[in-house]
Design goal:
Length: 442
């Protein structure tokens, strides 16, 4: 298997930097010095880091929180909204195995602060949520008796997002069409989180797949799905990445190859990965990968391809990082990408994850550009048709608003009347590497 690249890269030991001598030294002072030296050397906007007094920060995590730029994008949003950490064991489990502890619920979050509004986006097959009849569109009302709309956030977070396998919590939901709350007691368990699901052929010859995560297991799932679509002779594809926060760049490069034509991508750059001006020597070009990198398939396995001149992408604010790289990479070789939904998150950047003393740190180290040299989408990609998420229909249902809009655009080139859910954020029972943020209830 190739070294991991988490939109993505392995830590480079850059010679001549004394901070590298502190790697693996786990006393607090050494960890803080290591994080500061690493950031000053490899952070993309190192010149915009604040001056810090290490003694003012009690823990490495306290220090890491401030080791980022405070500048804003053209629209006024924070330039670096992607600064976070994971316990290393959790990160390895999530990025490699496609499993995590929970109930199998992915939440759509409309309001994080009171009055809060959380709705089930989808549930995983065979999960405790599915076994208890919780489905897309159910509204969260309580957690362990605490009001989810206005109650204390700590028990809400503990019950929803940070439950360990074996923990039991009671969640109150309002099912679609119901008039009263229903309490469901569930035991958190290790959940298999398939990166590709709800695969179907709709409208005669249109392939649809819900692609949720660029994790290792996605390599084989994408291979199998594209192989099936090719055998069925699809003429168009709807790639649903509305909840895909990113992940392994190899997976994005493989996906983009499988969707496009070798005549279009042959010898072209999928993504040029550029470091800060201290390290021009580290720049690398990620090609369109025509054989498996070896994450879940035998390395060198030839990949199928659909030869599509156009791809419909269902996207929202959680469509981020490696997902946006697919959009940008395909546009870089003149594949038409029609975006249905709302503005994507805006992350033309990659992490060089740093594992040290049980914590994995994610700090922006890389900017990516496509074959045309374009990578300026810090405020995201705008939709061609603005359509709100539709929680009244299952994902993959041709009547679901975003998929229906894609099918309408395919048929006659028009969009339905614009609809939107202003300010919608996404909260996840499992968090993909590279997500916009780690959701907590406030």
């Amino acid at each position: 298997m190739r070294p991991r690249i988490v939109w993505l890269f392995l830590l480079f030991g850059c010679g001549g930097n004394n901070y590298t001598d502190l790697a693996g030294k786990c006393d607090v002072d050494s960890q803080k010095q290591y994080l500061l030296g690493w950031s000053q050397d490899l952070y993309l906007w190192y010149s915009e880091l604040p001056s810090v007094n290490l003694a003012s920060y009690a823990t490495p995590l306290d220090l890491f929180d401030v080791l980022r730029t405070t500048a804003t994008t053209a629209s006024g949003h924070p330039k670096d909204k992607f600064h976070f950490t994971y316990p290393t064991t959790f990160y390895e489990q999530l990025s490699q195995s496609g499993t995590t502890a929970g109930y199998g619920i992915t939440w759509a979050e409309f309001a994080q602060s009171p009055p809060r509004n959380f709705v089930v986006a989808f549930v995983e097959p065979g999960s405790p949520a599915e076994q208890n009849g919780i489905g897309r569109g159910a509204k969260l009302l309580s957690v362990d008796g605490v009001d989810a709309i206005a109650g204390d956030p700590d028990p809400l977070n503990a019950g929803l997002f940070f439950a360990n396998a074996g923990e039991q919590h009671t969640i109150g939901v309002l099912d679609p069409g119901a008039s009263a709350e229903r309490d469901v007691t569930m035991t958190a368990q290790v959940i298999s989180v398939p990166a590709v699901r709800d695969v179907a052929v709709v409208a005669g010859s249109v392939g649809y797949m819900n692609f949720n995560d660029h994790d290792a297991e996605a390599e084989k799932l994408l291979f199998d799905t594209v192989t099936s679509f090719k055998s069925q002779g699809i003429t168009d594809l709807v790639l649903d990445m509305r909840y895909n926060g990113g992940g392994i760049i190899d997976i994005a490069a493989e996906a983009a190859y499988m969707l496009s034509s070798p005549l279009a991508n042959n010898g072209r750059v999928f993504e040029r990965l550029q470091f800060n001006d201290k390290h021009p020597e580290l720049a690398q070009s990620e090609p369109f990968l025509d054989t498996a990198a070896g994450w879940a398939l035998t390395p060198g396995t030839p990949l199928p391809h659909l030869d599509l001149p156009r791809v419909f992408v269902l996207a929202e604010g959680q469509t981020c990082s490696a997902s946006e790289a697919i959009i940008n990479g395909l546009r870089g070789i003149d594949v038409q990408v029609v975006i249905i939904g709302s503005q994507t998150c805006g992350k033309p950047y990659a992490f060089q994850p740093l594992d040290n003393c049980g914590t994995t740190y994610f700090s922006i180290n890389i900017q990516g550009v496509n074959a045309k040299g374009f990578g300026d989408y810090a405020d995201g990609f705008a939709p061609d048709c603005q359509v709100a998420d539709d929680f009244t229909h299952a994902l993959g249902d041709p009547q679901e608003a975003m998929l229906a809009a894609a099918l309408q655009y395919r048929a006659d080139g028009t969009c339905p009347p614009a609809s939107s859910n202003p300010g919608v954020l996404r909260g996840f029972d499992r968090r993909s590497v590279g997500n916009l943020l780690r959701t907590v209830i406030r």
